[in-house]
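User: Fold both of these, please.

Assistant: Here is the first one.
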Amino acid sequence: MTTFILGVITTLVILFMFGRIRLSSGKPAIERAINRKLSEGPYIVAVGGGTGLSTLLRGIKSFTRNITAVVAVTDEGGSSGRIRNEWGMLPPGDVRNCIAALAENDSELRKILDFRFDRGELKGHSLGNLLLLAVTEMSGDFSRAVERMNHLLSIRGRVLPVTTEGITLMGKTRDGLTVKGELDISAHGHELSEIWLEPVDAKPLPDVLGAVDDADVILLGPGSLFTSVIPNLLMSDFADKLRASNVPAIYICNLMTQPEETQGFSIVQHVDWVSAAVGKCPDFVIVNSGIIPEDIVERYAKEGANPLYIDDEQREAVRAMGCEVVEADIMSVWDSEKERRVLRHDSRKLASVIFKIIRRLDD
């Protein structure tokens, strides 16, 4: 990427910083009232990555602004992977998505940050990733850049990379094959017997650990099991902090298995892996009870993905681990830009279920 192009992106950052690009159009009095109410909400730490975490954040920000999103930094694909390889910066994609999700006007900001160049040297890069790259170059540190973007865009909460160290996902299959990197882990997830990070002594950010101390509830997932949720939990200091905490933890299970990564997995297997990474079982497990349309089930099945429903046997197995099972319709069907219907967690439905649990705990 040329110095000229990076200079253009830096100019955009400066325009953002000085407020020449406005993303909020609400009335000040209404905004103050909303912010006052949201500031009284519970303190939530949400752990994950990928589209699952950003979907969750869009829902819970309607209930509280006391949110810390802890984001995985092992992404290797697309624009994030190119920036990581060419600039030695941590992958910005998942962080960008979470910042956009917590913005006051998330739909408008998402359009801007998700804008993807389609030609020239910038082909394939999103504007949001390049903005984070520019702020990192200006700040000299990825975590400071993320913090500046948090303040710059006045988001409801805070987004933190779990670490600023360059980490790599490693795993071993049941056949003894060692696999390296997020892409290989995803391709062999259903065969894994072991997973870890290198370097093994990588440290989470102090603010990540501090967020757990302040939390009223910890949310794990939703998201790809081995490449979004578990990478955060593999940092031993973070796992130790979660294990020692008396704060209730809620694991949000995916709607479907993921081709290759969790192909053929049950809900029990998902909970087993999360429990092994933390060192204890989550207090609650939220699973979808909504009926997935048959046409979507059939199409996903051709790709190697199947619905994650819970039956009586699994229900008893999860309860035997010490987890309370919460079953609810938390899904929605979207029409994607590729003219096919896709299954996603419903932000509002999911947030409603989570806050029902929180209110019950407060009673």
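And the second sequence with its predicted structure:
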Amino acid sequence: MNNLKGIKILLVDDEPNILQFLEMGLQNEGFEVQTAQDGMTGVTLAKQFQPHIIILDVMMPGMDGFEVCRMLKKTENVAIIMLTAKDEVEDRVKGLTLGADDYVMKPFSFEELLARIHARVRNQFPNLLGEVVIGGFRIDDRRKEIQYQQRVLELSTTEYELLKFMVLNQGLVLSKAKILDKVWGYDFGGDENIVEVYIRSLREKLNDKEHRLIRTLRGAGYRVDLL
């Protein structure tokens, strides 16, 4: 992923070695980085620095990562990736319930964390990238335009948002309920079968007659598989 300038990351961890390692690595990737060694400082710095992404350790003395996540998700437009040394489902569920966007367990590879950061930027701040290229797709969020295999697709506003959401989450199974929430909004009161109608239209425009690009997983939802 190119053009990472302007993307701000806040690191919150009480282990100095981890902070130093991540700060150097992420700065080398082109991110603007600041660090905090405790939860309260992290909350204060987040409000001042206005990061796009926070890498947040769960287990910290005083205010732990769960409380930091809860507080910031109430007021800040930020993606939170939580770090934990515990391989416990309860911790992951608690963090996600409080609004965390992703979870990485220690020890982790820098490459894995970087991939998760890129995914969060693509999903939550695509406008910062100008254009996102994934497989045969080129998504230009400023122009609200999607190209597939160098051909501009004629899409309605809803078709654009639906295809963008699915491509940015390629490889993941997306239920009708999740699609409705993200594309139509949580307060949409219509029939969820509207998703089928729009998927059918997208398949026609993508010439996806055999449903190899947008796959249907019976009883589960849809998944984009890049060819």
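The domain at 131-224 is CATH 1.10.10.10 (Arc Repressor Mutant, subunit A).
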